[in-house]
From TrEMBL:
The keyword Transferase applies. GO terms for molecular function: 1-acylglycerol-3-phosphate O-acyltransferase activity. The keyword Acyltransferase applies. It comes from Globicatella sulfidifaciens DSM 15739. Pfam families: Acyltransferase. This is 1-acyl-sn-glycerol-3-phosphate acyltransferase.
Length: 209
């Protein structure tokens, strides 16, 4: 058993014990025969853990903010769990290249949060550009997670919906306009999936401290 597999089993046990099984829809939208860019809303620190749980045994490598890698022991632990650092304000060429290699050489799914942060819902450029380089399919995901420790332990169940795949279109030129169009499709699906899960749901980002 790899460290990643062990970690996911531990996550499943802890999350199901304290929060119960999440409500999931649209798993059939995950193509079976290719690594995917799993583009998710980001509203809680638990989001990547829920994703790793529900798509298992598929494995996913996540981008995470580079400040988490300042401690050597934590950086080593995250690396064993297929997590790699990114400067959220200005992703480096090295980070983009690594993200593409995750999909094309390591044959893993790439987990990415297009907003870049829990403190905004604005879609940043980057996801579509990685699709351009990797030619991978994007699957948008909306997560309505428990917010904060109290909601988690009082079993406010997470709701997760996987949207329609956005395949790479080899007939199109992925110029600035096309990349913006892909980002717009992701944002549109986030809205549709949220309404599908709960028509009354509204996420209000907390200001960054």
């Amino acid at each position: 058993m790899t460290f990643y597999q062990f970690a996911v089993h531990m996550i499943k046990f802890i999350f199901h014990l304290f929060n119960g099984k999440p409500q999931i829809s649209g798993l059939e939208n995950l193509p079976e025969d290719q690594p995917l860019i799993i583009a998710s809303t980001h509203r809680s620190m638990t989001d990547p853990f829920f994703l790793a749980d529900v798509i298992y045994p598929k494995e996913v490598a996540f981008m995470a903010k580079d400040s988490l890698f300042k401690q050597k022991w934590l950086a080593k632990l995250l690396a064993k769990g297929n997590v790699f650092p990114v400067n959220r304000e200005k992703p480096s060429t090295t980070t983009i290249k690594h993200a593409v290699n995750v999909l094309t050489k390591e044959n893993l799914n790439l987990g990415i949060f297009p907003s870049g942060s829990r403190h905004t819902t604005e879609i940043k450029s980057g996801t579509a550009f990685i699709q351009k380089l990797s030619k991978a399919t994007i699957v948008p995901v909306a997560i309505q997670p428990p917010i904060g420790f109290w909601q988690f332990i009082t079993r406010k169940r997470a709701k997760i919906a996987f949207g329609q795949p956005i395949p790479f279109d080899s007939t199109q030129k992925y110029d600035k306009e096309m990349l913006a169009n892909v980002d717009a499709q992701i944002a549109e699906q986030f809205d549709l999936l949220d309404k599908q899960l709960d028509p009354e749901y509204v996420y209000v980002p907390k200001p960054k401290k």
